[in-house]
Amino acid sequence: MFSYAWLILFLPLLGFIGLSWFGDKIPKKQAGYAGCGTVGLSFLVTLSVLSDLLALEPEKRLGHVETLYQWVSSGSFKLDLAILVDPLSVFMFLIVTGVGFLIHVYSLEYMKDDPEYSRFFAYLNLFIFSMLLLVAAADFFFLIVGWAFVGLASYLLIGFWKEKTSAVLAARKAFVMNVIGDVGMVIAALMIYQTFGSISYMEVFSAAPGQFRPNDDTMVMITLLLLVGAFAKSAQIPLHTWLPDAMEGPTPVSALIHAATMVTAGVYLIARCHVLYELAPYTMYFIAGIGAITAVFAGSMGMVQYDIKRVIAYSTMSQLGYMFLAVGIGVFSFGMFHLMTHAFFKALLFLSAGSVIHGLNGEQDIRKMGGLRFSMPVTHITFLVGAVCLAGVPLTSGFFSKEAIIMSSWHSEMGNFVFWGLAVLTAGMTGFYIFRVYFYTFFGQSRSPEVHPHESPIIMAAPLMILAFFALVMGFAAHWVDQFLGPVFGVAVHHYEDAMLETLAVCAGLGGILVAGIVYMTSTDRLEFAKQALAPVYDLLFNKYYVDEIYDFLIVKPVRAIGAFFEQKVEKEGIDLVVDEVGSQVHEVSRGISFWQSGNIRTYALNMVVGMVTILLFVVFF
Amino acid sequence: MLSLIVFIPLVASLVLLFVDKDNRPLIRMVSLGAAGLSFLLSIGLLLVFDKTNPGMQFECAISWVPLLNIQYHVGVDGISLLLLVLTTFLSGIAILYSMKQEKGFRNFLALMLALEAGTLGVFVALDTILFYAFWELMLVPTYFLIGLWGEGRRVYATTKFVLFTLVGSLLMLVAIVGVTVVHFKATGTLTFDIQTLVHTHIDSASQTWMFLCFFLAFAIKVPVFPFHSWLPHTYVACPIPTLIILTGAMSKTGAYGFLRFCLPMFPEAVAEMGLVIGAAAATGIVYGAWIAVAQKDLKALVAYSSISHLGFITLGIFALNNVGVEGSVLQMVNHGIIAAALFIIVGILEEKTGSRNLNDIRGLGKSMPVLYGMFMLVTLAALGLPGLNGFVGEFLILMGVWTSHLLSDLSTIFVLMAGLAIVFASIYMLYMFQGSMQETTLKDPKDLKDIDRTEFGLLLPACVLIVFIGLFPKPFIDRVSLSVDTLLTVEKTVNVHAGEDKDHH
Fold first, then answer.
1. Any B CB within 8 A of A443 CB
2. Contact B301, B357 (CB under 8 A)
3. How many percent of chain A have pLDDT more than 70?
4. Where are the domains positioned within chain A?
5. What global pTM score does this model have?
6. Reported ipTM
7. How buried is residue B241: exposed, middle or buried, by Cβ count under 10 Å (0-12/13-18/19+)?
8. Mutate to test the interface with B, among A9, A16, A74, A196 (most CBs of B within 10 A)
């Protein structure tokens, strides 16, 4: 009954194909409208699917598999091209097409001076299609296909300005890191196939609980391998270094792919495979631990960066850490809820930052900004909304979703005070770094007087205002999200009430804001003093804990050296030499026959023909 | 019909020798016509092929040397059919590409057609001696094509190639005779018929040496690590049109040999040595990829990447189960398409910029948007992007390896090695693509024109197939699965000790 849900995927795919073939033959404007239109329609179809789904009894909303055709049948391995329509996938459809549409519209204006306007929209459509495939796939194979395709779209869009060397390098880094994740997932799929004889979700998830006891080695292995993909895509330690570099892409891309949708794929994956993860509590602890550490780790780096987009990128990493913490301690629907609120307020922050960059003709360094609250009033307000949501100021969406996670990190079955402590520490850092940017950018005096900032036109401002609205109010949808996703995760999550912990967490966020205010709103002496006093820590953070340098030393350089060794020593001086040596020995033996060594190609040819004919004659007249 | 497909190019090749060598239009017509006709006929064959029949189809047997009961016996099953079509397809493209050839136009095309005929013959021969004759027929044109039209150290390269291959094929000839002798001892009938010989039970000691002889011949042709050292020299020296057939079709004759001879004839030897061969193949996968990462010469880069990809094919075959072997057959087709497209692109780049070294070319995408798009698609297929054809084959192969009984002791390690190579593939392919097409140009882009209609036409079929096989591999797999079943379940009904044919058994 949901076969028309395929339309949701086909529309952006059509947009991609159409725009890549005809994009440069139609006027710019129409190319842009076409790009937005497909995603907008896709969103409308999603709404229709949603209403059809809601019309069903909650327990009947699960497991609608819509098959297109049989993809392959090889030996005992059979696979259909199919999508799975259930509350979780529809929930993701809504975010991807909804936020995606707003960002498409925003891009109409943001990219309008780019000579490759239609190619940009083609790639954006490709991304939307790939992301939808990822969340709609009904088996691990097409999950991997979608997974790799979003990686491709991300690669294409990070390297969109392909003549910029830094963009090209960042794109390659992102791609290669993600291929590492893909390989992990492929091996996981192989293990799943070997274990269950199938790689489709329905069969695997229904077989797993009966077949394995918790913490069975196989389950732990499979879940860990899937995690390699999740960590790579969602920029968790140790596969996180590509995300800050990904900011080389145009800002709408950062908002759509590197904040709202693609990077949350890892969280989606764990939520989707919750049946497997629940059978592997060890892996769950591991996820929660990595999530909490990444949250602090990224938050701390975000406190000292000067590139406005990089700060928000680190913030994304940090918030993803929260989501991993949530799914790691088993409160899947809280993780998904934070995924949703984060999609709104982080897209909002990125687009507002984009508006600032647009208004300042491409400037991204916050040290060169300042005083923008007068010249860009709309952007100022929307950025502020995003910032308060991110910092978790009470009654904003971020407050509800983050509170739920922080509370569970103490009170839930798998929670403990370490997770809670790291989560609260992160909350403090979050308040600090985002308001540091806010104060730098919108307060004080303009630091580059020669630039005359201007407010962005309505076509950019409208998506900002819509996102701001949702970012503010979506917190109140918490209950609805729980109920909607409840059937997928089996049990409804418990909302813990603990006034003291709640107050502490809120205070951490507000405290961060306060410190940022004190440091950046008052005299600059204090800033200098703090920098001096904390110089070693500051350097460590500013250089991103030297992780790039460590990887270069431990991985990149050895790989190069071994490659050179293979080529020079093994290949040229090893195998090749042995072969040539054997060859020359043969020559030695046949030295008497001088024409063998004449070096004349005709002679060689003659030898060949004579030899061939001899052999053939020999064969025929044996 | 099958014989027509093989002999049209061969006859055309002979006809060309009587054409005036300056009469380019006629030469063009004859060669394109022959290659085109052969291709169309093979497509026709594909359409009428019955995929529910596990045996040989379109068979034709004529006595050739009655004294020894050597027959001209040809026929195809699903595996040879796919490779046959691949060969006619790639040869058509290669011949089309050769139209630019200046020096020795006529002889070049005559040899190319002879090469095509030899390769096609290998895939259809059902008699071991006929197989051997075609096998050698491939070699002669290659020798001249590289030796006379090649570049760089062409004589060194071609001599090395020929010597390597000759060593292998002579060993194979010995084993061919050996198998027939065993059969003769068991039954008293002399035959070189492959379908009869596969049912012969050979004692394990003989199996070992015969298997090794065959294996060596095929392993050199593929090539399997560590018998690959002719490949980089040969590929770099080889003219592009020849290279298309060489890498796309001829390298598959080795893998095809594994399937047609090694697996059904010598099951015990395969069981004994499969793990070692798997290890060699897996080593080749990583080794080739690792060296490719360090290459600046694009032709050498694709050459080393081929070693890696061909390693996948060998590994899948020796997984010895349906999924792995079917994945390998599909991957043969995929590699043929992708490698051919990559070499065409390298040829185009070299022709347009005068260099194929990554140090000299950069930022070409700006002035060549169409090539940029096609190059990107081929790059993605080559690095095994899920959703495109390369990944389908790799995934099935890895699935086969993972579930293989034969390789089970080391299958995890093999899969991890393959995984490492996949990561490397993304690195070297992106070096290749980004290095040549992106960033800012070194030269004035006004000198550069985008690819013309012919070049577009050369690349388009490959691009279409890359997407199509990725989206819908079922028709391809369906055509080979029964044939693979047959290969993997050959019964040994002719027993040397019993000394009688136990067909009724």
1. no
2. no
3. 92
4. 1-279, 331-541, 548-620
5. 0.90
6. 0.88
7. buried
8. A74
